[in-house]
Amino acid sequence: MSFFCLLLLLIVIFSLASGYPVAFALGGGALITSFIGILTGHFESAFLFSLPERIYGIMNNESLVAIPLFIFMGLVLEKSNIAKDLLEAMGELAGGSKTSLSLSVFAVGALLAASTGIVGATVVTMGLISLPSLLKKNVPQSLSCGIVAASGTLGQIIPPSIVLIVLGDVISSANQQAQINQGVYNTTAVSVGDLFIGALLPGFILVGFYMLYVTSYFIFSKQKNLKTKGNLSLKNTISFKELFKRIAPPLLLVILVLGSILFGFATPTEAASVGCVGALAISFIKKQLDSDKLSKALSESIQTTSMVFLILIGANILSVVFRGYGGDDLVASLLSSLGDNPAIAFSLVMLLIFVLGFFLDFFEITFVVVPLVGPALIEMGLDPVWLGVMIAMNLQTSFLTPPFGFSLFYLRGVAPKEISTTTIYKGVVPFIGIQILTLVLLWFFPSLVTTLPKVLLG
Q1: Least confident residue range of 42-51, 101-110, 258-267
Q2: Alpha helices in 184-267, H assignment, sequence order
Q3: Which bin fits 227, alpha (ψ -120 to 50), beta or left (φ > 0)?
Q4: What residues contact 27, with CB distance under 8 A and at least 6 apart?
Q5: Average per-residue pLDDT in the chain?
Q6: C-beta of residue 408 within 8 angstroms of C-beta of residue 400
Q7: Angle at 294 between CA 292 and CA 296, to 5 degrees
Q8: N or C: which end of the chain has fewer CB within 10 A?
Q9: pLDDT score for 335
């Protein structure tokens, strides 16, 4: 059976390398391999009969309904220039100091991450507004690019995050499968809310490390933090009233969305609907969302959501065929052959995910790799919430790692022509290192992830 598992993976890899759409490469490769197995008598066709029910389950999954809602909320904020207003206000508040301006970019990135969770919109907005201001302050090009790219990807670890929503569903299935494999049929669930709360502290620790690095850079490079020309706008000062008017809307949205989840008033899906209503209300009150912008937000939301669910369906077909060939048992035996120490198996899986991040999107890694290795790792005794947050933090690096990091593509599209692609690559390297450092910290101190969900959710 290992031959057919390998054949399945080779067909999928070849399809992806040829540029075929991911969803069809996953599902199509799996179906081709299953047909070969049926013809040769190595695959039971009964496995394929479960596909309609599994696909219906995906489309009927209440947790996944949060994906289109959060995508729409983020796009509304981006189209209505609320994110742009926030960046401009924080830039003016930062004054003339290189350090304060750089730190304000991270602060805005964290706030936008907690209110939108859309990486593309955040990186583009910051690239258009913050990058020129950092360059005018004589912040080195590579560091400026690194700051913008790293702050723009915070939306993948700070809730509400599309990565955490998808991972929450996948980790929950893996946890239930692991319990069934251990003979526990009264299974306990892992919710998206668990991952949201578990990722809060690690996300802000990561922001703190980013800020510490930038501050240390300016201190040790002995660059004087003197006032220079070139603020974010023509004004050099901003009144408290104006600052409040620009910061209050996204801050209110964060309180509505995350607060309702943290205090148990709403599920992530319900909170996402609250966020959509809140984003629309704020946009209409500020009179910055006309019918054309709203139409574009709806259209882009539908396109992105369709892509996500098609990949999820394709990955489920791949998972069914892989399990039909005994692939899950093969993965479990390979991991268990590494010894009784789950740290070795976990470190190898994390290394695999990190390497795949150089070439694959986080959706592909989440839907293909995690369902295969998740049950085995949880059976070894790893906490599913901790495992989910660690994988999410690892997947975040895929947005920054060359050559296919999406944040790098977004930034390249809006960066000045005099900034080379190599400069952008060099700029993100320290921030990738900081993400790895944060992963190591969470490995040695898992309570940073697991304590808050236990306290708030019991």
Answers
A1: 258-267
A2: 192-220, 240-262
A3: beta
A4: 313, 314, 315, 317, 318
A5: 80
A6: yes
A7: 70
A8: C
A9: 66
pLDDT at residue 233, rounded to an integer: 41
In a domain, residue 175? The reply is yes
> Around 396, how many Cα atoms within 13 Å sit in the side-chain half-sphere?
37
Q: Does the pLDDT value for residue 227 go beyond 50?
A: no
Mean local confidence (pLDDT), 291-314: 84
Residue 232 tokens, joined: 């974010």
Nearest of 380, 438, 363, 451 to residue 170 by alpha carbon: 363
Q: Distance between CA atoms of 77 and 278, rounded to whole angstroms? A: 10
Give the model confidence (pLDDT) of 190-214 as tens digits: 888 888 889 989 999 999 999 999 9
Contact 410, 124 (CB under 8 A): yes
Q: CA-CA distance, 452 to 167, in Å (whole number)?
A: 18
**Domain interval for residue 273:** 47-457
Burial class, 39, CB count within 10 angstroms (exposed 0-12 / middle 13-18 / buried 19+):
exposed
CB count in 10 Å sphere of residue 372: 20
pLDDT of residue 210: 94
Residue 42 CB burial class (10 angstroms; 0-12, 13-18, ≥19): middle
- Neighbouring CB atoms inside 10 A of 10's CB total 12
Handedness of CA 380, 368, 187, 194 (dihedral sign): positive
Count CB neighbours of 216 within 10 A: 10
Q: For the chain, what's the residue count? A: 458
What is the Cα–Cα distance from 286 to 271, expressed in whole angstroms? 22
Nearest to 139 by CA among 100, 168, 173: 100
Token representation of residue 280: 């629309």
DSSP 137: T
- Torsions phi, psi for 290 (to 5 deg): -90, 180
The count of domains in the chain is: 1
- Dihedrals phi, psi of 99, to nearest 5 degrees: -65, -50
pTM of the model: 0.75
- pLDDT tens digit sequence for 137-195: 788 899 999 998 898 888 888 887 778 888 888 898 888 888 887 777 666 678 888 88
In-domain check, residue 2: no
Residue 377, pLDDT above cutoff 80: yes
**Rg for the chain (alpha carbons), in Å?**
23
Nearest CA-CA partner of 370 in 385, 387, 383, 386: 387
The answer to whether position 9 is within a domain reads no
Closest among 134, 138, 132 to 221, alpha carbons compared? 138
- Range in 232-246, 352-366, 441-455 the model is least confident about: 232-246
**What dihedral angle (degrees, nearest 10) is formed by the CA atoms of 175, 180, 182, 184?**
100
